[in-house]
Fold this sequence. Notes:
Layout: H1 18-25, E1 29-33, E2 38-41, E3 66-69, H2 73-82, E4 87-93, E5 98-104, E6 110-116
Parallel strand pairs: 3-6
Antiparallel strand pairs: 1-2, 4-5, 5-6
Amino acid sequence: MTVRRIVANIAAADPARARTFYADVLGLAVVMDQGWIVTLAAADTAAPPQVSIASEGGAGTAVPDLSIEVDDVDDVFRRAVAAGFEIVRPVTDEPWGVRRFYVRDPFGKTVNILAHRRAD
């Protein structure tokens, strides 16, 4: 038995609102739209399935609802601010090697946007 995929499911009265944040800000593509469910995915990523279980979000923060790794945190931060999304935690370089920020999506979920910093 092999786990092939893990999908986060967010309950929302109007799934179409996901496009503004997850497509426009994060650049994900809509891969399925049945009206009652919209599934978005990164077309060019082959990351292994993961699930994290946490008692806190690190650095004394609350556990975010989702963590999304990107290649350019600062670019996504600028897009989120320009689109008017609430920034819950500003861009921060964490001691465990990630650069990240927290933002609230259209459904009130806290999303941890992060990138692993390269060792110089």
